[in-house]
Amino acid sequence: MPWPLVPLSEVVALQRGHDLPSRLRKPGVVPVVGSAGISGFHSEAIVPGPGLVIGRSGASIGKATYVTTPYWPLNTGLYATSFRGNEPYWVYLALGQLDLAQLNSGSAQPSLNRNNLGGLRVSRPPKPAQRAIAEVLGALDDKIAANAVLRDSSRELRGASLRVALNGGQVKVFLGEGTVLLGRGKAPSYTQSAKGVLVINQKCVRDGTVALDQARLAEVMREPQLAFGDVLVNSTGMGTLGRVGVWRHSVPAFPDSHVTVLRFADDFVDPWVGAEAVLASQAAIEALGEGSTGQTELSRKALAALQLTLPERASQVQLGLKLRALHAREHQASEESGSLAKLRDFLLPHLMSGRITVREAEERVEEVL
């Protein structure tokens, strides 16, 4: 049975946050929450937890952030001064169902019009149902958050493992000595084809991984296909030049003209060790860019001349095995989080509207947790 619709003003009271310049922040553990989420920490809280902040301006307009502890809300967001007797986490979920960006004031800088917020209508179940909804969806969010910690710790351990191995002895080589620098693709036309293959561009290469959700479909006829373990380097553009990623997927994919591919020779270095060493050299790779301020390019010649620091060959086998295991753990956590997020996104609107019961949702969640 659908829940009754009520104005948002009966669900939560919102107020603009408070300024806190970086120069005035003191070391502490209190979250400082702005329009895009937690932006830092401070020694003093001005709002007790649990709390809720909604981005009111910029690219993060309408983004909701939930915190469980006392916090400092910045003036780039609106924060909850009262939950009107409702379950706080349920309020956070309810706001996630609203298209708050539609309330943009219409100025050159996107801004949330607070005066229009109160008139929005939301489905409000009784307090016990709110608590039950918060618990079942909160369990999914908690697991996704735990997986994020596991993923990040695995990445940190990969880098730390490489540094420890280097302390046991190292060799210096030029990157071009033992890699095949594949020619860049020929900038395929970005049109969707019946065959539909993935084309990786510079926007897909980020932070040591490849964002498949940003890959585009394209017609590709005779381009070299990516192989598992290939290292991808964004070689053109401003802001993202020198980003390094590693292709750890088995689906067919092709690089476009903005990406240079490094493929390690079998007798040169363990590919997992080589990839980690290139990731560790990202700052040096970013510094290799040449060109005008309007367009910067990283040449294959400059990339091949980069000196890479590797552990001695005798230690690479064991290090490679460790890196494989850490990646497997990271990949499993990411895959599980993706599945949990899909389930959460499916259950959320159905629970919030009353179209399915909490018990039905719990049964689905129990199957995956």
Summarize the structure.
This protein has helices at 88-96, 114-117, 127-167, 271-280, 282-286, 300-304, 313-353, 358-368; strands at 5-7, 13-16, 30-34, 37-42, 51-55, 64-67, 72-73, 77-82, 121-123, 170-174, 179-182, 197-200, 205-206, 209-210, 216-218, 231-234, 244-246, 253-255, 259-264, 290-291, 296-297, 307-311. With 369 residues, the protein is of the alpha+beta class.
Number of domains: 3
Task: Estimate the strand proportion.
Answer: 15-25%
**Are there runs of 5+ residues with pLDDT below 50, and where?**
187-194, 217-221
Give a quick account of the main beta sheet: strands, pairing sense, barrel closure.
4 strands, antiparallel
Give me the number of helical elements: 8
With strands numbered from the N-terminus, the spatial order across the biggest sheet is 2-8-5-6
What shape does the CA trace take? elongated
CATH architecture of the largest domain: Alpha-Beta Complex
Question: How many E strands?
Answer: 22
Describe the secondary structure blueprint for this structure.
Layout: E1 5-7, E2 13-16, E3 30-34, E4 37-42, E5 51-55, E6 64-67, E7 72-73, E8 77-82, H1 88-96, H2 114-117, E9 121-123, H3 127-167, E10 170-174, E11 179-182, E12 197-200, E13 205-206, E14 209-210, E15 216-218, E16 231-234, E17 244-246, E18 253-255, E19 259-264, H4 271-280, H5 282-286, E20 290-291, E21 296-297, H6 300-304, E22 307-311, H7 313-353, H8 358-368
Parallel strand pairs: 3-7, 12-18
Antiparallel strand pairs: 1-9, 2-8, 3-4, 5-6, 5-8, 10-22, 11-19, 12-15, 13-14, 16-17, 16-19, 20-21
Helix pairs in contact: 3-7, 3-8, 4-7, 7-8
